[in-house]
Amino acid sequence: MTISHFSTELNSKKILKILLGITFALVILNVIALYLRFFPERYHVYSQLHEFFLDIYIDRFSMNTEMNIPTYFATFQLLAASILLFIIAAWKKAQKDKFRIHWKGLAFLLLLFSVDEFTAMHEKFTKLFKDLPDFNGLFYFKWVIPGIAFVLIFGLLYFLFFLHLEKRYKVLFLTSAILFFGGALGFEVIGGRFANYNDTRNFSFQMIATVEETLELGGVALLLYSLLEYMKGYFSEIRFLLGEEAKN
C-alpha cells in the first residue's frame, strides 16, 4: 500500500495579518450597521424589500449581537487556539514536561471560551449575582463579578507556568491576555457604568461594545500568532499518523 503525505506551511505573520484584516473589516461593517440602526432618519428606505435587507444586514454584522458573523468568527478563532494548545499539550505530555497539565488546561479553557462565545453562557451568571450591589453601575453586568474572580484565580494557578516561559513568549502571551480580558471585562465594566445612566439602546453604548469585541478578537488573533511562533520555535514539522501507518 502506497503511503502518501500531505504538508502545508503555516506562516504565523501572514495568518495574524489576515485575522486582523478580517477584524478590521468586521468593525467597519459593524459601525455601518449601527449607523443604519440608530440613525434611520438620515437615510431613505425605498421599499419593504429594501427594509428587509437592511434588517438582515444590521442583524448579521452588529458585533454586540449573538449568533451572527462576528460571533462565528470569534468562535472560530477561539476554537483554532484551543486546537493548537491541544497539539502543544500532546507534545508536552510525550516529553513528560513539568507543565503539561497547564497546557492541557489552557486547551480546555479556550474550548470552553469558544462554546461560550457561541452560546453566551457567561451572561447566565447575572441571575446568580443579581442581588449584589452594582457600585454605581460598575457591576451593571453582574457576570463580570465571577469573571474577575476567575482571572485572579487563573493568575495564581498559572503564575509559575508564566515564569518558566521564555521572555519573548511571556510578552506575547501576557499581551494577548491583557487585550482579551481588557476587552471582555474592562470594557464590560466601562459599558456597564455607561448603561447604568444612559441605557444600552443607543449608539454610544454600542460603540463601547464595539471596542470590547475588537479587543477580544485582537487578543485571540495575537494568541494564535504566539502559539504558532511557540510551536515553530520547538519543532518545525507536525505529522498526524492515521490508520496502519500510525501503528508502524
| Sheet/helix structural class | mainly alpha
Mean pLDDT: 91
The main pleated sheet reads as:
none
What radius of gyration results from the CA coordinates? 21 Å
- What is the terminal-to-terminal distance? 13 Å
SSE order: HHHHHHHHHH
* Percent of residues in helices: over 70%
Shape: globular
Model regions low in confidence, pLDDT < 50 over at least 5 residues: none
Number of strands: 0
Report strand %.
under 5%
Number of helices: 10
In short:
The protein has a domain at 71-239.
How would you describe this structure to a colleague?
With 248 residues, this protein is mostly helical. It has a domain of 169 residues. The protein has 10 helices and no strands. Helix 3 packs antiparallel against helix 4 and helix 3 packs parallel to helix 9. The longest helix is centred in the last third of the chain and has 32 residues. The two termini are 13 Å apart. 24% of the residues are buried.
Question: Any key phrases for this structure?
Answer:
single chain, 248 residues, mainly alpha, 10 helices, 72% helix
How are the elements arranged and paired?
Elements: H1 12-38, H2 48-61, H3 69-94, H4 100-119, H5 125-128, H6 144-157, H7 159-164, H8 167-198, H9 203-234, H10 244-247
Helix pairs in contact: 1-2, 1-9, 3-4, 3-9, 6-8, 8-9
